[in-house]
Amino acid sequence: MLIGRILTGCCAVAVLWATGCDHRRPIAVASSNGPALASLSYPEWAVTEEHAPILPYDNPLTAKGIALGRRLFYEKALSRDGDIACSSCHVQQHAFSDPRRYSTGVRDRQGSRNAMALVNLAWNHFFFWDARGLTLELQAFEPVRDHREQFNEWSEVVQRLKEQPGYEEHFRRAFGTMEFDSLHVVYALAQFERTLISFDSPFDRFHYGCDSTALTPAQVRGKDLFFGRAHCVDCHGLPLFQDHAVANIGLDSLITDPGLGGVSGKAWHMGRFKTPTLRNCAVSAPYMHDGRFATLAEVVDFYADGVHLNTPNFDDHMYAWKLGAVHLDPTDRQDLIHFLEALTDSTFLKDPAFGPPLD
Hints:
Blueprint (H helix, E strand, L loop, with lengths): L1 E2 L2 E3 L2 E2 L2 E2 L10 E2 L7 E3 L3 E2 L19 H11 L12 H4 L46 H10 L8 H10 L3 H9 L6 H13 L7 H6 L9 H10 L19 E2 L12 H5 L8 E2 L21 H10 L13 H4 L7 H12 L4 H5 L9
Antiparallel strand pairs: 1-7, 2-3, 2-6, 4-5, 8-9
Helix pairs in contact: 1-5, 1-6, 3-6, 8-12, 10-12
């Protein structure tokens, strides 16, 4: 059964529920009595003992807050030169990731990492490749100030928004104030980003939705490898296809990017990065924190025979590689790629609710 409802005031409004093997989204019938509180819509199986959405008490979801956050996500006034929005590096058809190896900010300043896909963020415990952002709200503060990204001052951003027709009214509807500041901006952005939910891939229809025809034979073989002797599931478990870890997977013998270690300063954190979701990974190339792999084939080849076992802080979760237990022949590798392609949620990639506002 799908979880999802919209509340108006203190009264619940009508919702049509999808049950059993039917994987349709719920249809909410909104009321006209005032601003609506909103809850996330996701399948019941998307919540487990280990994985559940994190919704802060001080930033409840509202229909107006989400709408404002969506508008701000595509707002280029957040950047110093007015050319860069959040959406410039987080492109919907690429699962809100950046198809460029290194994300580029104002004045063509290039970073050293690839922008992560924004998928099922409400379930995440921390943000950025190096895990330095502990909430979505804190994460949203940084790109505006980063000299490699939007490189602006928050006071300037707020002043620009106040000068644009309509924004004061949008903030009044979302937060009850026209005297908004940077905190209101990041709260709205976080609300919108929590709605970027993706749980409707062919794999989901096969595994959870009772549709035995949703996967091809090659994808079924790849699935068995993924959850079996390829050991992909050791870090990319259900339902998110990720864990809540910061790991060193043996990308390099000598660490060139400190990852979490650059934040904490601790030697045993060096070279550790957040485990990304594999949902929609077929459309979110390039891969790894530095975008070093251009294709899924390169990623699979790395795990098959390119892992550096001698890297400092090599993660204990990679025990199967330490034992030399991972062996993948060319057919295995191709089947794994076919399975990874079955994690694409085409509805999510085209959902107009996540695209630029029309007005």
